[in-house]
Amino acid sequence: MQTAGAQAAVEAVGLVKRYGRTTAVDGLDLTVERGSVTAVLGPNGAGKTTTIEACEGYRRPDAGRLRVLGLDPYTPAGAAALRPRIGVMLQSDGVYPGVRALEMLRHLAALHAHPLDVDALAERLGLASCGRTPYRRLSGGQRQRLALALAVVGRPELVFLDEPTAGLDPQARHATWELVRELRADGVTTVLTTHFMDEAEELADDVAIIDTGRVIARGTPAELCRGGAADTLRFGGPPALDLTSLKAALPAGADVSEPSPGAYRVTGEIDPRLLATVTAWCAQHGVLPDRITTRRHTLEDVFLELTGKELRS
Amino acid sequence: MTTDSAATGNTGRTRDTGAAGDAGDTARPGTFTPRPAAAPLPRMIAAQAALETRMLLRHGEQLLLTVVIPTLLLVLFSTVEIVDTGDGARVDFLTPGVLALAVVSTAFTGQAIATGFERRYGVLKRLGASPLPRWGLLCGKTCAVLVTLALQTVLLTGTAWALDWSPHGNPLAPAALMLLGAAAFSGLGLLMAGTLRAEATLAAANLVFILLLLGGGVIVPLENFPGAVRTVLELLPVSALSTGLREVLQDGAAMPWAQAGILAVWSVLSLGAAARFFRWE
């Protein structure tokens, strides 16, 4: 999309980062196109934050190649050239406890040559009313919104948002989404991590699912949902129907089973034709389904399928 | 510079301007169009210095340490004979000691505690991703210490004059000693803040402040300690500073090179160790 700068915003190849004997990132490949919104998903401990912090220049990769806006973020020269061009929202606070909200925002603005209008930005993120409140007395949501404002105030080309909506109320969440959409419309590249699948579906052009330090799936949200396990159609009816003829009528790749007596499940690509096949079969056999539901797979289903359901540390 | 052309290339992108009206005041086209560049270095450092100074002065407990305690000690011990300060007016003995204490309170205790908590709250990490270089951050801290120290000096010498203080010597010598002392104590404070947990720094910095106040020749003359202890105490940076200041301001001596040398050694060691061991996260 960008005319200038042919290279990707982030290019990681075979990235490895170890902490002692733990390997947090284990041969990760990730490309972030300029001007896109990329969501990095993964269970706790999957290596999301380590990856992002390597891009921000905080972590020196143990192996692999990493370029951010064409620069190596860990060399002194690369980091110095990169820092003015990126915006960073960390999971930790990163703000003086005694500083006032607007004072901190003005300070970050003063470190940049062409910052955004601080008052307008504060107004837009609902920070104007608490602008004189010391940071330690801000609510969790206000702190989150201030951190977001700090990330964008310098008019960066590339923004890293580490769990930008964790702990936000729905209003603030939608305001954050609106801001990310606008960043994208204005040509800013955004990389965000999140645990909210709907957030990734809403915002992301590209999703990378990370587990145990590697990218295990990637694509647009729609591609990932298509590529995942089959969708399902369920219907209820008399128990122990003979399903042989229905199986024969279904298209290739689809199947039907009776997981519990009287509850039938059809898996496969559920489209209107398949629904018609099922209802036609019911009509032929004098079966009135007492309820028919169809369900497309969400990103969350795909995510759980790929990363398993057991709890992570 | 190169990024500007990319930015202008972007402003022409199709936008749904119809939605702009209801999305807020700043939601006009191109608000966020990238235009990244660091501010000029002097402006960044000035902004950092101003912020660091405000943070240091705004902190209530810090003011107790930097202003209230030294002033109270000066007034109390000058007007009431609690400690035998030797020959001469008590205020002439106490003022150099209290000036040395001011250096400890700001460059060491205040800076260590503030920096320790900044490290703990990720401020240092956050600013590490900003255009401000790390040495710029340290410049800001140094400026904040010097400004605070200048304000303390004005307040304490003003108070001393009100108590009939009669200083001697060339004022450049004490100024140089205090700067050396500030360097040595900044190194020690940053070493502590950059290696210990914030709570440990808080406790240790206050404890060291009290110990140096009692054993560093600030209000109790070192002559009052037994010989062996005294020899050790004289090598402490605060003792070197208070003794050096006293030699000039009380006795009218020229630059006390022995004390200046002790402070210089402490500065090199402490700043070197801080540079080596400071952890930003």
TrEMBL record, chain A:
It is found in: Cell membrane. One of its GO terms (biological process) is response to antibiotic. It is an enzyme of class 7 (translocase). Keywords: Antibiotic resistance, ATP-binding, Cell membrane, Membrane, Nucleotide-binding, Translocase, Transport. One of its GO terms (molecular function) is ATP hydrolysis activity. Its main location: membrane. One of its GO terms (cellular component) is plasma membrane. Its EC number is 7.6.2.2. It is a peripheral membrane protein. Residues 10-237 form the ABC transporter domain. Gene3D superfamilies: P-loop containing nucleotide triphosphate hydrolases. Belongs to the ABC transporter superfamily. Drug exporter-1 (DrugE1) (TC 3.A.1.105) family. This is ABC-type xenobiotic transporter. It comes from Streptomyces harbinensis. The lineage of its organism: Bacteria, Bacillati, Actinomycetota, Actinomycetes, Kitasatosporales.
TrEMBL record, chain B:
GO terms for biological process: response to antibiotic. It is a multi-pass membrane protein. It is found in: Cell membrane; Membrane. GO terms for cellular component: ATP-binding cassette (ABC) transporter complex. The chain crosses the membrane at residues 63-83, 95-117, 138-163, 175-193, 200-220, 257-278. Residues 57-281 form the ABC transmembrane type-2 domain. Keywords: Antibiotic resistance, Cell membrane, Membrane, Transmembrane, Transmembrane helix, Transport. It holds the Pfam family ABC2_membrane. Residues 1-38 are annotated as: Disordered. One of its GO terms (molecular function) is ABC-type transporter activity. It comes from the Bacteria. Its main location: membrane. Residues 1-31 have a biased composition (Low complexity). InterPro entries: ABC2_TM, ABC2_TM_bact-type, ABC_2_transport, Nod_factor_ABC_transporter. Signal peptide: none annotated. The keyword Membrane applies. Belongs to the ABC-2 integral membrane protein family. PANTHER family: NODULATION PROTEIN J (PTHR43229:SF2). This is Transport permease protein. It comes from Streptomyces harbinensis. The lineage of its organism: Bacteria, Bacillati, Actinomycetota, Actinomycetes, Kitasatosporales.
